[in-house]
């Protein structure tokens, strides 16, 4: 049986179809890998030119490469600083939320509202978080402790009110970002702290136990105590 010879164009098309089969594409670099290879080649060339600033184009090309490298380094540093801004700030773990001056939750709430009315969101958020801390102390949910930090407040209050533990952590993160991370704050961020304060006031925390600590002995007793001796909120 005699078959017609395959022409050049037909042979090229058959070869193209064969090479498009997945078995031949398995080891082909992806688009991202090809872009990365091009980028690393460009960087290599850039550093090569920068290492000999007077050997390329009478010096101009090399010096331009140095300027580009410096600009890239500054951009990377700026990006890292921006990403890390307000995160893991040690001051948020070491600075007391409340000082030793006498104050009430109502004092802090009124101060928070005054700051919010003036658009001073970092101050408003701090005062609202202070109101939360003081309110929990006044209701004997937490033992009074002037050195308590915002992170400790979230951990201790979260144990007492587990249904709001996540909200407490978010509230402290908002506080850290605006007070220690130099974020501007916003009406929405303050509203979240205010809502958290209101939800905590309506919550029914776990009873505060002394566990042998005389500073906590008798905490939670009073007109709200139940028949079993535990506090009722």
- Number of helical stretches of at least 4 residues: 10
Shape designation? elongated
Order of helices and strands: HHHHHHHHHH
Overall pLDDT confidence: 76
Helix content: 55-70%
Please state the oligomeric state of the protein chains shown: single chain
Number of strands: 0
- Helix/strand structural class: mainly alpha
Radius of gyration: 32 Å
* Poorly predicted ranges: 88-92, 210-233
Major sheet description: none
What is the CA-CA span between the terminal residues? 98 Å
Strand content: under 5%
Could you name the key traits of this structure?
about 230 residues, mainly alpha, 10 helices, disordered C terminus
Overall description:
The chain is mostly helical and 233 residues long. Among the domains are: 36-84, no CATH class; 92-202, no CATH class. 60% of the residues lie in helices and 0% in strands. It has helices at residues 8-19, 22-25, 31-51, 60-84, 91-94, 105-117, 121-138, 150-160, 165-179, 187-202. α7 (121-138) packs antiparallel against α9, α8 runs antiparallel to α9 (165-179) and α9 (165-179) packs antiparallel against α10. The longest helix has 25 residues, at 60-84.
How is this structure best summarized?
It is built from 10 helices and no strands. By secondary structure, the protein is mostly helical. The C terminus is likely disordered.
Secondary-structure map with pairings?
Layout: H1 8-19, H2 22-25, H3 31-51, H4 60-84, H5 91-94, H6 105-117, H7 121-138, H8 150-160, H9 165-179, H10 187-202
Helix pairs in contact: 3-4, 6-7, 7-9, 7-10, 8-9, 9-10
């Amino acid at each position: 049986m005699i078959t017609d010879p395959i022409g050049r164009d037909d042979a090229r098309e058959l070869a193209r179809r064969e090479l498009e089969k997945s078995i031949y594409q398995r080891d082909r670099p992806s688009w991202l890998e090809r872009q990365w290879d091009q980028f690393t080649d460009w960087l290599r060339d850039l550093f090569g030119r920068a290492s000999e600033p007077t050997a390329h184009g009478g010096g101009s090309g090399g010096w331009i490469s140095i300027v580009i490298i410096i600009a890239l380094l500054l951009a990377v540093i700026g990006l890292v600083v921006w990403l890390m801004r307000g995160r893991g700030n040690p001051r948020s773990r070491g600075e007391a939320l409340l000082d030793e001056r006498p104050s009430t939750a109502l004092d802090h709430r009124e101060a928070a509202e005054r700051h919010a009315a003036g658009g001073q969101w970092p101050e408003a958020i701090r005062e609202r978080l202070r109101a939360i801390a003081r309110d929990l102390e006044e209701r004997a949910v937490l033992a009074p402790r002037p050195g308590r930090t915002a992170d400790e407040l979230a951990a201790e209050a979260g144990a007492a009110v587990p249904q709001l533990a996540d909200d407490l952590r978010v509230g402290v993160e908002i506080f850290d970002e605006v007070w220690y991370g130099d974020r501007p704050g916003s009406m929405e961020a303050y509203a979240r702290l205010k809502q958290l304060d209101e939800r905590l006031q309506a919550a029914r925390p776990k009873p505060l136990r002394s566990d042998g600590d005389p500073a906590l002995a008798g905490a939670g007793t009073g007109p709200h105590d139940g028949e079993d001796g535990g506090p009722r909120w």
